[in-house]
Amino acid sequence: MPIREDEIEYRVNLKKELRKIKDPSDRERAAKLAGEEALKRLKQYVARGDSPVSGNGKFKKLSKDYAKLKKKLVGNKKANLSLFGDMISELDVDFDDESFTIFIDEPEQMAKAENHNKGVTIPKRPFIPDDKAGRGKNFKKDIVDAYKNKIKQFAKKLPK
Description:
There is one protein chain. 45% of the residues lie in helices and 10% in strands. It is mainly alpha-helical. It has a three-stranded antiparallel sheet with strand order 1-3-2.
């Protein structure tokens, strides 16, 4: 899905990874675990000022004035998309028996998220892959490996 102000989400198709799990409710549980793992790791990247999106590195530093204000308000001047944590805390995960979706559905936070992801009025700091921004945009390899590993671990625990 492309990132738009009215739709901040990224869907990960897991059909291939989930195909060995027969029961749809077990596939849903595996997709849930995978999505939760991806979201956890996304937040870890952002907290340290790194983009979790493939092809992107560290977030651009804050402007001098904003860094000074942020330091005064919250005690740090990191470019970690978090002044008070409102936007990042609105990130959530939904799932079904073939995918998970990381999204924000709170309107005020959606506008902020689009601005950060696209760099509309501030430096671009992508934290959710944007299908429209370029083919093959995805999370970084270690995040992909981690959520796929969650599915593998879940599948191993199921009775045969």
